[in-house]
Amino acid sequence: MSGLFDIGRTGIETYKHALSVTGQNIANAGTEGYHRREVLVSERKITQSDSLSIQDQLGLGAEVDKVSRAFDTLSFFKLIKTNSALESAKTVSDHLVNLEKSVVSNNKNLFSDVNNFFEALNRVQGAPNEIPERQAALIAAEQLATRMSTFAAELSDLKSNLLEEAKITVGTTNQVIDGLVEVQRSLQTVGATNFSPSSLLDQRDQ
Fold it and tell me: HSE (CB half, 13 Å, CA atoms) of 114?
């Protein structure tokens, strides 16, 4: 009967740990970066110290083999690649919109000013002695010069903003890398065991 009670005891202890893991999953259902834990239960193995008795042949009960994370590496890296491409496209789109606003403003654009200037020059060429055509050409030239100057200033501002965003991104990236280095050191300190440091792995993969 003692063998039966021992087997029952190992089963109770094993599934007590399994219930604890289930409770951990429920408690962290809304935690960002948390990956569900899974308990792998296996038959308790016979060690060299165990005697090769009939009881050993019948079985020694169950034990927790390991607690692993429900983590799909392939899907994870696909998600990272997709998010990276999305953020890159959003950044390009935002700056193209700003560039478009610089070229086109108040229903007028740089190209229309260029066309107006050359049309005014053509009218002057057709009537070189007419004062109104000359004045119109000068006004068109002044408007084009003003628009070009404004456009150049706005391009300079866009360039400055891009450089500032790049500096911020580099700084943020360096902080993330430093954090990953610390987590990796912690993982190396813990070492490779059957009970993996899941919380550290979650922090690394977040």
Answer: 7
Residue 65 burial class via C-beta count within 10 angstroms: exposed 0-12, middle 13-18, buried 19 and up: middle
pLDDT tens-digit profile of 26-45? 888 888 878 888 888 888 77
144 and 116 in contact (C-beta within 8 Å)?
Answer: yes
Report the predicted TM-score, pTM, of the whole model to 2 decimal places: 0.49
Please list, in sequence order, all residues whose beta carbon lies within 8 angstroms of the beta carbon of residue 183, skipping any fewer than 6 positions away: 200, 203, 204
In angstroms, rounded to a whole number, what is the distance separating the alpha carbons of residues 198 and 37?
Answer: 8
The 10s digit of each residue's pLDDT in 163-190 is 888 888 888 888 888 877 877 777 777 6
Q: Are 141 and 117 spatial neighbours (Cβ–Cβ below 8 Å)? A: yes
Q: Is 55 exposed, middle or buried (0-12, 13-18, 19+ CB in 10 A)?
A: middle
User: Which tokens sit at 136?
Assistant: 């119109």
Q: How many CB atoms lie within 10 A of CB 156?
A: 10
> For residues 167 and 164, what is the distance between their CA atoms, to the nearest angstrom?
5
